[in-house]
Each structure stands twice: as structure tokens, then as C-alpha cells.
Amino acid sequence: MLLCCLTALYTAKAQKSAFDYSFYGFVRGDYYVNSRSNVEGVDGLFYLFPKDVAKDAEGKDLNATPNGSFYSFTTRFGIDMKGPDVGAARTTAKVETDLGGTNNMQFMLRIRHAYLRLAWQGGSTLTMGQTWHPLFGEVAPNILDLSTGSPFQPFNRSPQISYQYANSGFKFTAAALWQLIYLTVGAEGKSEKYIKDGVLPELYAGLDYKADNWLVGGGVDMTSIKPRLQSVMSGKTYKVDERLTGFSYDLHAKYSTKDFSVSAKSVLAENQTHTTMIGGFGVSAIDPVTGQQDYVPFRHSTSWLNLVYGSKYQSSLFAGYTKNLGTSKSLTVADNVYGLGLDIDRFVNISYCLRYVLPHWHLGLEYTLSTAWYGAINPASGKVNDTHDVTNHRLSSVFMYFF
Q1: How far apart are CA 132 and CA 81, in angstroms?
Q2: DSSP sequence for 10-35
Q3: Which of 238, 260, 300, 308 has CA 20 to 30 A from 285's CA?
Q4: Is the dihedral of CA 17, 119, 180, 152 positive or negative?
Q5: pTM (2 d.p.)
Q6: Is 237 helix (H, G, I), strand (E, B) or coil?
Q7: What percent of the chain lies above the pLDDT cut of 70?
Q8: Cα–Cα–Cα angle for 223, 151, 320, rounded to 5 degrees
Q9: How many CB atoms lie within 10 A of CB 32?
Q10: Is there a contact between 171 and 163 (Cβ–Cβ < 8 Å)?
Q11: What pLDDT, on the 0 to 100 scale, is given for residue 5?
């Protein structure tokens, strides 16, 4: 027993000596104030869009009430690791966390990134674990708000197995993804059960090209879920076999120099609520005996543009636009739908921020003007009619100290 313990200790010590650790992170504080109530996450730090008008008995808008707060729980800590080679592959790993897992003001340590990576000299890379969704990609807005451009920019970190091959400026990406923190919205609210019951992982394939100051690319994403496993009709329970499959496509581009960058992305999305985008699905048919349902995804066209200028004194202009394109099949009823912002016909967001950037300090101020056009869903087309606009003004500031 003593010999086994000594051998194990020696092996552990030898293994540790082959590893290299690099710690990083930042302390971050966010202050914000809004002119009205909004659909948001992380206790208001993750801003999405203004809520619709909700009238009281006297016709006053209950949501037309200013709000604001200050938090520092998005402070972040991470570890980058380099380990011994596995055959011809270099090995690295990352673990990153913050306190942004909030639930009724209870701040919880949450996983942001947790993955290992194998890289070969020939250009192949295999990543296993949780990290950014491929639709987030290398082209993302450079703004202050924690939402990083959502709901226009796909925002999601998921458990995945991802393979990349890079050669002569081209990079091919193929990934199989599951869900953990960012979840599909269905009949039981946000849940991973829909993709778990569907067995199939989310699948993505994309191609990028990088040369000089340019990066351009695109990809296609498929999700296939089972919204329900059983139904109840006339007091009887039936086992049902339901499935909804959606395809989403993205194009993105970025041009950058030392002091200037312009980036843009456009997504034709079907049922991308798990990437924090406006969208979802509805019921297109119901079996009168068993209650088994057919589903159809809503289609949304979403685009954004971001201009950034400066290094020490940096300014950023962001503009985003989302349009509900409806459904390919008619809906049974307008209210038998599941998703995020499905009663919004279009949504526009314009923000401008100023940053003071030092090697270990960032200070910033940002103003956001966003308007959503709410209305009623037309069951025949899935589009939104009889719209009225709702606007929110948001002012936010951020300080960050990097270590």
C-alpha cells in the first residue's frame, strides 16, 4: 500500500510538471437606467427589447416605469492550461466562470467555458466541452452591454464537440451541440428536455476565409427537437411522436485595422430561442383523436452592423434590425405558439458608446435607443399585423479592471 501511494504521488508530481497554467479575469461593474420595463436577463444587465404596453384599469401603461441598478457580479475568472502532447496533438484546456447565474437575486457561480482542445500541425483542431456556439463565431459586436448585440447577434455557449480545419486562409467548422444554460422555449418553458428527447444534437457546418484585414464566412445550423412525448384528449393520455426541425443560415464579414473596424452579420433564423434570438414555433395541425400536433417554426431575418474607431479613446456605433417573416404553414390558432417576442413584427436598435481604454482599465458610457413594433399574430401567415411601436431609452456605464 505504501509503495502504491508513493508511486501515485510521484506520478502526480511528474504530471504537474508537464502542465502550464495562466490565470486571467477582470472585475466589472455595470450601471444602467431604462425609461421603461424590458425583456431582459441577468437582473437587467442582459438587455433584449422593451416590453409591450400593459394598461391598467385607467388605461395607464404599467410598463412605462423607469428602472435602473448597479451590479458587479459579472466579474470573471478563468484559467488557461497547456498540457503534455497526446501523440502529435498539442493539448490545451480552459475553465472560465463568473457569478452571473442569477435566480431571484441569488448569485451563483456558473460555467462560461469548460473545454479541452487538441490541435495538430496539419491545421486540424478538435474541441470538446462548453464554449461559444458557432453562430456566435469570430464576428461579434464590440459594445458595452453584456448582451453583446442580442437578440440580433446569436448569443450562446453550449456543450459541444467541434472540429475545425484551417488551410490557406480557409477554415471549415463542423459541430454537434447540446444545451445546458441557453435553452429552447417550448410548452414547458425553457428546458433542455426538448433536444434531449429528440436525441439528435444540434448540427452546424460553416466556412470562413481570412486574408489581410478581412474575414468573411457563413454557415448553416439545424435543430431537431421533440416538443412533447404525450398528450391528453378527452381525459385520456396518449403517447405521441412529434418533431420539429428548423434550419438557420448566417453570413458574416469583418474588416479591421489597428484603429478601425467594421463588422456585420445577417441570420435567417428558425426557432433560435436557445441562442437568445427572437423566434419560436407554433402548432400547424392537431390530430382530433390522439391530440398529436404538427409544428412549424417562425422565420426571422436579423441583421446588425457595427463600426468601431479608436484605440485609447474608442467609439462604437451599433445598429440592429429584426423582421418577422411568418411561417411556411398556417397556424391552428394565434395563441398556440412558443418562443420569444413572437408578437413583434420588427425591432430596431441603435446604440453608441464611448470607451477609455488602458492596458488594465476600461471605462465606458453607452446610450441605446430601441423600438419594437408589437401587434397580433395572423394565424394564416404567422406574421404580425395591426402594430404599434414601443420605445425604450437606455443609458449604461461600465468599469473593468483586467488582471
Answers
A1: 18
A2: HHHHHHHHT-EEEEEEEEEEEEEEES
A3: 300
A4: positive
A5: 0.91
A6: strand
A7: 94
A8: 125
A9: 23
A10: no
A11: 44
